[in-house]
Amino acid sequence: MYALFSGPAGQEALRVAALLARRGVALLSHETAAEIHGFVRHDPERPIHVTVPYGTSALRSDGLAVHRSRAFAHLALPGSAPPRVTPAHTVLDLAVAAPSAPEAMRRAHQHALDGGVHPLALERAVELRRPARYRRAIADAVALLRDGVLSALEYRYLVDVEQAHGLPVGHRQDPVLVDGVRRYEDVTYDLPGGRAIVRLDGFGHHRDSATALVDRRRSATAVLAGTPSIPYGWTEVTTSPCRTASEIEALIRPLGWPGTLRRCSRPTCVIF
Length: 272
Fold this sequence. Notes:
Endonuclease, Chain A; 42% helix; four-stranded mixed beta sheet; 10 helices; three-stranded mixed beta sheet; alpha/beta
């Protein structure tokens, strides 16, 4: 194989070379496809991943990882150059390659969000390929996307605060009228004594004055309606989930939540 240019080969040239080295049909896949789709950062130390039809022989080469797929005919993103796997199937590839089921669920959820993959597209990819590993975990990720868990912060709140401590799972993305405009609350708890609201503010949430105004108006609307609400950010949810869970219990217990708060699996878990 020859390069028709001088100087070191760039990343695009290396990817094309990886495809040509296959001497047959091949697609960029896994982390390599994810880099091009924009939901995984480029790592120059990472091998270039290609997928070929099942049963195809492949020469081993340093810096090249070859995968074989029985569903090869359905994986290509139409018109892509260089040829690569669709975003939905790329998400599925990365999830199946995870070291554990919880990590597979996290990857499927986060990569689908980062890549703008609709949950229906990911669900169809799973039905087509029926992966032997982590099918339940990936299905759970699809369910989260369908239920409106739309950020890494919302995912961590669900898993580390609600589920880990036995709290009720709140409703996601419930519509509410604010100054005559439909807005959406991150998490709501509807209980016999009324509703409580949890707002999850991630990094850059108040990136401009208009966004900050919308949040202030949402807060004002809740207060005037007599609805208790509480905001949390990344730090409270990820570094102090047990304290956050205790505060949520204090928020919803007076509204009639009959459950029992429990300690999570963290050795340092303390129920306040």
